[in-house]
Amino acid sequence: VFLFTIAAALSACGGGGGGGGTVSPSALDPVTISSANAPTVVGDAFEATDDMTDSGGALGVFAASAGSTRSTDVNVIDTIIKQIKRAPNLFGSNTGGVSPAAVVSFNEPCDSGTINGNFNDADNNQELSSGDTLSISANNCSFDGVVMNGSFSVDNIVVTGGFVTDVAPYSFRFRMRVNSFSAMLGGEAVVMNGDGTISESTQDGVIFTSTFSGNGLEIVTSVDSLILTDYLIEEITDESTFPAAYTLSINGTVSSTSTGGSVTVTTNVAFTGTGENDPTGGEAVCVGEGNTSVTLIANSDGNSVQLLVDSNGDGTDDDILAETWVTL
Fold first, then answer.
1. Taking the model in full, what pTM does it have?
2. Which residues, including other chains, have CB under 8 Å from residue 98's CB and lie 6 or more apart?
């Protein structure tokens, strides 16, 4: 569950800098879309679908389709959230007796390497709770096989219920600011810069509503560099069935060094599907320079897609391309 699928929807429509806590990356100039480059525009971000995410939930919609373009199995957002949950434990007894709103520093060993930072336990309950803030810096820190470097900070934390223990009902929201934070698994690394606000809620542990939004986020891999700007990604996951059903939508601007420009992505019809399967429905339009565009339509067979190309920006489709998720 959760928006460990955050890049997935973006991957349907294209796909590099900046950041460290105060500076958000800016979008590249819009790219002109044509029949020749439309599949590339649509498929370019596939390698980033699991650069921030895992292979579960709606991510399978796009990551499973990325085939050889997938750069790595690193899940950066999941890694950050695990460290946020782990942070109070890292401080251990260091927080005992500390007055509310005091800032506690820590420097702890990982499985290998080190991790250090500051934790403002606003209510001194020695747990992650509303109003807390934290910053973490990692130096070749390895947990669960993932090697981390760089830093990130978290504020605007609002937590209710059993978020830390994954017991429903719960909700959480926080803003992360990432400064050259990298996660490496199996020799492949993903580096992130920028900002994002993440939220998730569930009343019953069955239906999860998640959002991921921000001003700008850069994702750098060995394959491509992507920039997400003014983005909002929304997901609903229903685990009452197996595999779980998902509904996913994306709005924002995606820049890619591979395409040499940006497109503005709008979801007209939310993408729907189950588990790690490709979508069986959904539609998103990617608009580039001069209102040129490509509209992605997921067919009900869960395998094929249509690309409607407007190469002169007059609002009329000039070409219709038949593609599959695998070939994008």
1. 0.81
2. 104, 121, 124
